[in-house]
Specification:
Layout (H helix, E strand, L loop, with lengths): L1 H33 L4 H14 L3 E7 L2 E7 L6 E6 L7 H15 L5 H11 L8 H18 L4 H21 L3 H4 L2 H20 L4 H8 L6 H12 L3 H33 L12 H18 L7 H18 L7 H21 L4 H9 L4 H12 L3 H28 L7
Length: 417
């Protein structure tokens, strides 16, 4: 009788432990998805954690939902559907999840504390204040103007337009229907303001500064991630993410065209003003400031700032040096290969997510601006230029995807995040 009670109590404890483990898996899955992790990373990472818990599990990730089946074996699995909200990249969340899993592996915390820590991720206050986010939008806009060979006037104008985009993004977020209009609304205001500035001061390239001011909203990273998912066999997630990225491009292009149309109806035709570019030394200053801004925009920890600097430096230097011998898309392929290997080495040494270095380095190379130019050309009936730009954007996205895959082959990552 005593043995039967002991077995029953042991079985009950095992079931309780399994439920806690399954609960942790589901919360981690939701947190990783809403932190911006692509499907291939999410599924691979969740599979590793499931194996550590000795659970039979399978996951199917999409941008807005994750399907999960979890159980002790394949015949006792329960199925779950986790509704997720697509958000921007959050490197701090990925880092926190990774730390919790490391502590579980080393028996430093129990399942209850781990579950509490995971739940607290979604409720903790923002790492940085809103005014700093808006400021970083402006600084990134000015920084990218240097990459587009703009003048001093273009840098100043793009910074103001980027700040405007940041303010619209932040203050539209709490309102459901307003936030759904973010892309065309921000593009409309930026386009109208850029043409107004060009009309009165006649010192800026209004199309260049419009693009730089909207650069954070241009879904270049989304296009690249979608291509990566498609190339790794995640067809549903890759297709839906690509459709979302292309839709955002259309919305931005439509809003910008409407802003230009309204401004031109008021001011008439406004010429594009091309002035001398800025000195080369300022490019490096802008690169350093842009790296700091990406640390804020990606919600990274202050301790990760150095690695973000290093990643962006590798991407910029690799692209510049290799560009002396190769043209696109091969220089992007080689630069991303360097970033991928560097991120994986960092992950293997520190046991931290490789995304800390991968994402900031890739963001400088993604083809979002080319795709934006493609649609803008089509809006002005320059179809051939638009089609050529769209093809170039697709080829660069493929090159970046291949570079990441080859980097993983040469230096396998320790963690899938």
């Amino acid at each position: 009788m005593a043995n039967a009670l002991s077995i029953r109590e042991s079985s009950k404890r095992d079931r309780t432990t399994r439920r806690k483990q399954a609960n942790i898996l589901l919360h981690i899955c939701k947190a990783i998805s809403e932190a911006g992790a692509p499907a291939h990373r999410l599924e691979s990472y969740m599979q590793v954690i499931s194996d550590k818990f000795n659970l039979e599990a399978s996951f199917f990730a999409m941008p807005t939902a994750v399907l999960a089946s979890i159980g002790e074996d394949e015949y006792s699995q329960r199925s779950y559907m986790i509704k997720t909200t697509p958000n921007d990249i959050n490197l701090s969340t990925l880092h926190t999840i990774n730390d919790v899993i490391n502590q579980l592996e080393n028996d430093q915390i129990d399942l209850d504390k781990a579950l509490t820590a995971i739940k607290n991720i979604t409720t903790k206050p923002p790492t940085y204040p809103n005014w700093l986010f808006a400021l970083c939008f402006g600084l990134v806009g000015g920084g990218f103007t240097t990459l587009f060979s703009g003048s001093w006037y273009d840098v100043g104008a793009a910074s103001l337009l980027g700040l405007l985009t940041g303010i619209i993004t932040i203050y539209s977020a709490p309102y459901k229907y307003l936030s759904q209009l973010l892309a065309p609304m921000a593009a409309l205001f930026v386009g109208f303001t850029a043409l107004t500035m060009s009309h009165y001061w006649q010192t800026i390239d209004h199309f260049l500064v419009s693009l730089a001011g909207l650069i954070i909203l241009v879904p270049g990273l989304g296009i690249t991630v979608a291509m990566r998912e498609l190339s790794t066999g995640h067809l549903v997630s890759g297709s839906s993410r690509m459709a979302g990225a292309v839709t955002t491009l259309f919305l931005l292009s439509f809003g910008l065209a409407l802003g230009y149309l309204i401004a031109q109806s008021i001011y008439g035709e406004t010429e594009i003003n091309k002035l001398n570019g800025i000195p080369t030394w300022f490019n490096y200053c802008a690169l350093a400031v842009t790296a700091l801004c990406f640390a804020v925009l990606f919600k990274a920890r202050l301790a990760d700032t150095f690695w973000i600097f290093l990643s962006i430096g590798i991407a910029f230097a690799g692209s510049s040096l290799i560009g002396l011998w190769m043209e696109q898309p091969f220089k992007s392929l080689a630069a991303v290969l360097l970033v991928s290997m560097a991120g994986n080495i960092y992950s293997r040494i520190s046991s931290n997510p490789a995304s800390v270095m991968h994402i900031p380095g890739i963001i400088l190379l993604v083809p979002g601006s080319i795709g934006f130019n493609s649609l803008s050309a089509m809006y002005t009936n320059d179809t051939m230029t638009g089609v050529q730009a769209a093809f170039n954007a697709a080829i660069i996205a493929v090159a970046i995807s291949v570079g990441l895959l080859v980097g993983n082959l040469l230096v396998p990552p320790k963690k899938e995040l």
